[in-house]
Every structure is written in structure tokens, then in C-alpha cells.
Amino acid sequence: MSPASERGGGGSLEPASTSARAKADGATPRGSERASASEHGSGAGIEGVPASERAGGAGGATPPGQTIDAHQHFWRYDPAEYGWIDESMTALRRDFLPLDAKRDMDAAAVSTCVAVQARQTLEETDWLLDLADRHAFIAGVVGWVDLQAVDVEAQLERRADRARLVGIRHIVQGERDDFLDRAQFRAGIARLERFDLAYDILVYARQLPAAVRFARAFPGQRFVLDHLGKPDIRHAGFREWRGDIGRLAALPNVCCKLSGLVTEADWRSWTAGQLRPYLDATVESFGPARVMIGSDWPVCTVAATYQEVIDLVRDAVGEYSATEKQQILYGTAQSVYLARKTFPAEEEI
Ligand SMILES: [Zn+2]
Predict the structure, then answer these.
(1) Per-residue confidence (pLDDT) for residue 65, from 0 to 100
(2) How many whole angstroms separate alpha carbon 100 and alpha carbon 296?
(3) pTM, whole model, 2 decimals?
């Protein structure tokens, strides 16, 4: 998709980087298409991260039926900081804080969430970590550090004792298409493994081939693809997206969030039937042990209620076995994010 400035009138569904705010996703909701799913994934679990090993690290046995929402945002609204919230999303121009989310989560029987960065500042990362310290239901934070900075290691070390920091994300969708190939960015990514941090890949579907090269270059790094790689649901983008998702799913160190679909479709006229092929294809490609439910609250609320977004995934996986459903709704997020090992002492490095 092209920058908002070229598209006009659309909604920015993820924040752009501070330096490239004008490049935010300006997708205009319109249109729909049908497509069918195929292929089957291995379901073998994320490589280098045996579920049996990681799952015990932060909570022990999993109560049946629990749900972790692996993708939420919190903010205190400030027009200068959130320029990506444009005229099409005026409902997002207010504070969204943990207790707002908790109300919706309780009603939808979602126990836990992972908070994800939205602004690309160290201050926001620390603020989200403070929120997680105060609210036990925020079990993890996917924050931001400047992965291109020469002092990225120091930025990570300063937060090494924050146990709820579970991953890092950069808003790559707002960057040039060659961004994931840049040596400077990759040098930062290479630091994450030492800190046992996941990395969230946020790209548009057209950037997925670059994401495949990128994830392949770091076989020991855990990656989480946000929002199914943002298929262009409004413009019949299934076929090309499907091939790229298959190639990404073939990499065992990558898993995928079942999130963000309603805002890639027409906000007013999307249907579960329209989105279902994307969900089915993703679960089939990655397997239940490498996909996790996420809401993208509050961004999702421009197109659906929280309950509707959660139900979309719960319904789509309704035919899977109890064990597989537990992985999709809870276990994958637990093992990929929340079972992060403790930071290694200097002598172990
Ligand atoms: Zn999001």
C-alpha cells in the first residue's frame, strides 16, 4: 500500500515511525473478494523454542479455556504524537488505558494481554512496562528500541531487568521497502537473541518477500508476524499474499498473530465469511502451535467490537481439537512471548 499522503481519505491502521509518520497506512476501506485456502502446515512449534521447555517458564500448567490477547495498544492521546490517527478514526482520538481494555476483556473472557508499542520512543516502551508492572493482566510488552542505533545494546541492557519486556517491534510498514535488508537494522536485530526477545514483524503484504529473506537470515531469532502480514482484503489480494505466507510459514522460527483483519477489510461491510479464508490459510500454513489470537484493540474498534474480533478467531478455530485450540488461544503466546528466559549474566555471554 502506498503512503497516506498519496492515497487520501483512508485510515492509518498502524502508526508510522516518528520520522515517517506521513507514510502511515492510508488504506481506504472498500471492496471485498473471496478466496480459498489450501496447504497444511507442520504445526511443529517455533524452532529453537521447544514449547515444552518454554511453556513452564512463566506460569506452569495452563488452565483450560484461557485466552491471551497477544496484541493490544495503550495510549494517552496527543495529536502531535499520534498523527497517524486521522480523520477516519476520530473514535481513536482519546485515551485508551488498561482499565478500558479490561472491561472488554472481562466481557469476552480474555484473561491476559500483550501490549505492543505504537509510537517508537523509548519513553513509550518504559511507560508500557510501568503499566505492566501495575496491571498483572498485561503479561508482556512488545516495546521499541532504536535497532539502528550504535548503542542499541545499551538500550536493551538498561531494560534487561524488566521481565515483562518480551519483544521488540519497529513499524517497518512505514519504512521503505528495502528496510529489512539494511545492514544497520539487521545489526540491531542480531542483538535480540542474547536478550531472549521476540521480534514482531509489521509489514504490508507487498513487503512479505522481504520479510521472508529477513527471517531466514536469523534462524535463531523468534519472529512474530503481525496481522497475517496485512493482506489487502479490500482489493482481492488473497492469491499473492497466500504464496508469501506459505514461504514465511516454511521458516520454523516464525509464528503469526491472528489479528488486525477487520481493519484490512471494509470497516463497515466486512463479514466473517470474507475473512475466514485468510484465517484458515494462516492456521493451515503455520499450524496451531505457531499462531496466536490477537485483537489489535483499540484500533480494531473502528471496524468491530472487541467481542466480535475475538469471536472471529474463536469461531474460525472451533473445529480444531481442544489441544490445538488451546495453542491458538493461549499456548503459542505463552511460549513465544511469556516464557522468556531470564537475562543471561555477563559470564554466560
Ligand atoms: Zn496494532
Answers:
(1) 72
(2) 14
(3) 0.82
